[in-house]
Amino acid sequence: MSFIDRHLGPRDTDLESMLSTVGYDSLGDLVDAVVPSSIRIDSALNLPEALSERDAQEKLAGYASQNIVKAQMIGAGYYDAITPPVLRRNILEAPGWYTSYTPYQAEISQGRLEALLNFQNTVMELTGLEVANASLLDESTAVAEAATMMKRSNRKVKNGKFAIDSRCLPQTLSVVRGRAEALGIDFVVTDFADGLPEGDLFGIILAYPGHDGEVRDIKPLVDEAKERNALVTVNADLLALTLLKSPGEMGADIVVGNTQRFGLPLWYGGPHAAYMAVHSGQQRNMPGRLVGVSQDATGRPGYRLALQTREQHIRREKATSNICTAQALLAITAGAYAVYHGPEGLKKIAETLHENASRVAVALSGAGLKLVHESFFDTVAFDVDGKADEYVKKASDAGINIRKINDDRISISVGESHDDTVLTALVEAFGGKLPESGKYEIASDLLRTDEYMQHPVFHLYRSETSMMRYLRQLSDKDLALDRTMIPLGSCTMKLNAAAEMEPISWPEFATIHPLAPADQTKGWKSLIDELSDWLVAITGYDAISLQPNSGASGEYAGLRAIRAYHEDNGDTQRSIVLIPMSAHGTNAASAALAGLDVAGVATAEDGSIDVEDLKAKIEKYGDKIAGIMITYPSTHGVFEDKVVEVCKLVHEAGGQVYVDGANLNAQMGLAQPGQFGGDVSHLNLHKTFSIPHGGGGPGVGPVAVGAHLEKYLPGDGYLANEEGKLEGAPLPISQAMFGSAGVLPITWMYIAMSGAEGLKSASEYAILNANYIARELGEKFPVLYTGPGGLVAHECILDLRELTAQSGVTAEDVCKRLMDYGFHAPTLAFPVPGTLMVEPTESESKAELDRFITAMSTIFDEIKYVADGNISVEDSVLRNAPHTVEVVSADEWDRKYPRSEAAFPVPSLHRNKYFTPIGRIDGANGDRNFVCECPPMEAFDIEVTEAS
Hints:
- By secondary structure, the chain is α/β, with parallel strands linked by helices.
- It is built from 30 helices and 24 strands.
- It has a seven-stranded mixed sheet with strand order 2-8-7-6-5-3-4, with helices on both faces. Strands 15-21-20-19-18-16-17 form a seven-stranded mixed sheet, with helices on both faces.
- The longest helix has 39 residues, at 328-366.
- Its cofactor is pyridoxal 5'-phosphate.
């Protein structure tokens, strides 16, 4: 069988039955009825013939072989780290972890929530602050988030500027510059050698250590900032903080950085989990997700995502961040790395790195190189009198990559796997001899003296056996795609095939530094160029950037391109983006971050854009219109037949058309946004193109554009000058030139194995599955929006509002009850409160669809039982769901329905039953009594044993 035959859920034998249910004789007839003829393409996509799994991997292995693996001592934000095999196999390569969704439904996410809380607690302990989030996208954007957070949080300095350390990474300076300029925030780049710059400062950003390795005492700068009412952000190396005095102890308000060196591969730049920590009381201002502790209906402690009112789909244009996708899978891995090593293990790694760097410093100083700084952690810099290229080549000839800072200066960053063989080869290449020990020590007044990471979780799992079982225990608590369909509308939880996933662990991809010379990265370039060409062919655009490392980042990049295009044309007054009221909330948030204003466009009764209101808005705003953002098919799950007219109206008004690519899974091979009127789109590779969600990230959101916008695609931040400026290219929006490159082989494999016909089939079967569910459930749960013939696109919205009015049973009750049936809930209350949005994807079989239909039909009967007055909603099986094994096996049972109804509402559950580890979580209690730290292990009935 071909890959696409394995990828698609329904079998040929199911097709006739499903089409009969929907009311069509053929799949082609159904698609013709669903997708408007005005946007259909009349030829196959320009893609190569589909390859088998084996042939695709062989071709990809050929690309991998073109990459040259060397010892990576470049540093500059990316460091050699060792991924313990127990973590690689049991997290990064385990479908129970990588196929899970963002933990919005806490009861079926307790494992990944606990793992993320371990990450948060690691960050809190090492930074010395009380609250940390569950990851950000990368280090540079985390610093940018901190800058804007200081701006809105400092009530003592309303205006003013912020000052950023010139010792921050060049990528960071350029990303921060781009964000600040878009928002009109004043700032200055300085090395702080003479203290703080003059003028009103609402905040400062300090590097600790600097990009060239120097460790200096930042306490005087922190104190001076406090005296001038400025907030302080410290951009810190988290591993260095196992040795260095914590920023929190020195008075920092915010600490940000990266956790890549906590067991994550280099991956040519990403994905890696950034972090942010703040003082208690600032959590409501902090971007990103936050895991906290509450309790369930029985009083049992339980984890949940806290303070969800900060989610950007609620705040829209008032959002202070457009963070949506984070880096959950990578944060989970980094947190597990901290758990596995514990504080003493992490400290030993850090001490070894520093000692080895000191040995290199002694050896090369003896060989005639001038050591720039005697105070450092793991990175040493040398002045080489215009011979930087010569030394870089000597190192390369010895199998080692080092960093050229400029013509006169090099630096060397020692990593976890760099043993004496590597160190000897390096120093001998420069004419030195490696000593037994170094002589450079970190000053005692810079060393931390407090204890950290004392919670039992950081001391229990030292053996591989215990760690393996702990990770299995956590995974078993969760529902992921390896157990069940995840019918989340707008999130496209499709198959992440094993053949697609395997290559990301290949050393030829995983160990390549993003700043390695071009002659060592030919394989990466071939893969990226070919994938870019394929995505351009699929979307109908002319160019693409793979830099955005989330869908929201892609939105931001696309809107920045639109703004720059208008400014270059002298249309600086074009500052308004029209956004339908039904759009994803990140659309409005991204527009705000790009420095654009938002005007809403009404939604018609059928869920489409209200064209008359659009015309009125065009008349009102005229030449102030920068463009429109539309989601297609619509957020309501319908192909709007007026989309071509909408695009034409905006173009005639001088605006650009942004087509949100979140729903591209219904269009592949059928329509191309770049051809029916779009000027720019972002794509969600973690939705349409099979990169797994990983519990809430990694995400990849490439931005595709027409030829007129190509020159506005983001540039390479590493090439920025000391002011963070780029010559001849727009500023970057992410840290690495190719964003989360490490997961691009997944999408390459998906497209290579699917081919043009396979991608088209994926869209067709996604449409079939959605309409099958809509027809089977429509009489019980009315489908809110449909197109011609009562059809939907690739998802449908089930309307529960009338049932709620009759019974008091809410859509949330249905979500919780579905857990008893072994299902992840559909998307709750978006885009319409009181509804459920269902997207089955093309990967689910008829049997799984029928299982879901049976569950929902049985739940309908349960709702009617309440509506008919047989039981109160408070006493019902729905309001008390989900039911834990502890509840249904208790000696006493006082509920007004039988145990069997609670636990086994349909016969199939006797063969395959999942129990939630906790009952219904009390989110409000957790937000009122916010707890970010781990509760005692005893609270979760986990035996605390002594660690080795």
